[in-house]
Write a structure and sequence with these properties.
There is one protein chain. The protein is an alpha/beta fold. The protein has two domains: 2-122 and 270-323, Medium-chain alcohol dehydrogenases, catalytic domain (Quinone Oxidoreductase, Chain A, domain 1), CATH 3.90.180.10; 140-262, NAD(P)-binding Rossmann-like Domain (Rossmann fold, 3-Layer(aba) Sandwich). 29% of the residues lie in helices and 27% in strands. It contains nine helices and 15 strands. It has helices at 42-49, 115-135, 152-163, 175-183, 197-204, 222-228, 265-268, 272-288, 304-311; strands spanning 2-7, 16-21, 30-40, 64-72, 84-88, 98-102, 107-108, 143-146, 167-172, 188-191, 210-215, 229-237, 259-262, 296-300, 319-323. Strands 3, 4, 5, 6, 7, 14 and 15 form a seven-stranded mixed beta sheet that branches. A six-stranded parallel beta sheet has the order 10-9-8-11-12-13. Helix 2 (115-135) packs across helix 3 and helix 2 (115-135) packs across helix 8 (272-288). It is globular, with a radius of gyration of 20 Å.
Length: 324
């Protein structure tokens, strides 16, 4: 018998309740996994609150986890009992002590990467990898703007960009987060609660603008991010922590020949071979020191509500995991 967090009604974190569940034997092509660590993401908050209505209720939230294979179904060739694995999936079900999942969702986990590191950084890491290497390929000499530069994805983006030879401008909400952003590779920091980031970016770039702006904030920063772009610059939006972006006229992109994208990491890495290749690049970057992970804060699976309260705190600088 296993346990899981079952969301029966959208609302406050207290809607996240621990229940007993049955994990079946795997069908053909499926693998049974015992979770050792489970990632907690802002997407989970949007699902729990009802902003995203993508999880049929009652349902088990959670997009990513890491653990050990405990059984395999017929036709499974690449995994066997005892293998270390990780995954992220748009099908949810991660907030559980175990589950059955398609072998196509699984990523082999090297011994050098802990379960907690994988569970807390796989989705963030592959999001940052796609943004910095494929949505826009950061190049030496670029100037890059990263909002929420001390956050989960933002801190990794800063490190990828700095490693590529770019000058990184980061926005943060506090002096404490500014110190973290500097450690993650930011050359310039803007405390957005004290200063408008747009004129500061123009000052830093001598009014030339940035080649790419990475924006997970959404409504409050979208227009300013556009204003910060250089000619032919790109705005990569990948979140909306301040709220949805209002409709805008695409003709606003014309004066500087700018472009805008909205990454869906599940679609971007829909090809499993490509997903596993990117995951290997991510794991290698952690191993060779290119990337420094965020500190990890642990909660018991039964403490999912407390984890969500922590996640929504503006002062948080830790990646969060649930441990069954």
């Amino acid at each position: 018998m296993h346990t899981a967090i079952v969301l029966r009604e959208a609302g406050r974190p207290e809607q996240l309740n621990l229940e007993s569940i049955n994990v079946p034997e795997p069908s053909p092509g499926e693998v049974q996994v015992r979770h050792e660590a489970i990632g907690v993401n802002f997407h989970d908050v949007y699902v729990r609150s009802g902003l995203y209505k993508t999880l049929p209720l009652p349902g088990i939230p959670g997009l990513e986890a890491a653990g050990v294979v405990t059984a395999t179904g017929a036709g499974v060739e690449h995994f066997r009992e005892g293998d270390r694995v990780a995954y992220f999936t748009s099908l949810y079900g991660g907030y559980a002590s175990g589950r059955v999942i398609s072998q196509e969702q699984l990523i082999p986990l090297p011994e050098a990467i802990s379960f907690e590191l994988a569970a807390s950084h796989l989705l963030k890491g592959l999001t940052s990898y796609a943004l910095a290497h494929e949505v826009y390929t950061v190049k030496p000499g670029d100037t890059v703007l990263v909002h929420a530069a001390a956050g989960g994805v933002g801190s990794l983006l800063c490190q990828w960009a700095a490693a590529a030879g770019a000058t990184v401008i980061g926005t943060v909400g506090s002096a404490e987060k500014a110190e973290s952003a500097r450690r993650y590779g930011c050359s310039h920091i803007v405390l957005y609660r004290e200063k408008d980031f747009v004129p500061r970016v123009q000052e830093i770039t001598d009014s030339k603008g940035v080649q790419v702006a990475y924006d997970s904030v959404g409504k409050d920063t979208f227009a300013g991010s556009l204003a910060c772009l250089a000619p032919s610059g790109h705005l990569a939006n990948f979140g909306q922590s301040s709220g949805p972006i209002p409709p805008f006229e695409i003709s606003q992109l014309f004066p500087k020949s700018n472009s805008v994208s909205r990454l869906n990491v599940f679609v971007h890495f829909r090809d499993i071979a490509r997903r596993r290749q990117a995951a290997q690049a991510l794991f290698t970057a952690f191993q060779d020191g290119t990337l420094q992970p965020s500190p990890i804060q642990r909660f018991a699976l039964s403490e999912a509500a407390q984890a969500h309260h922590s996640l929504e705190s503006r002062d948080r600088q830790h990646a969060l995991v649930l441990v069954p």
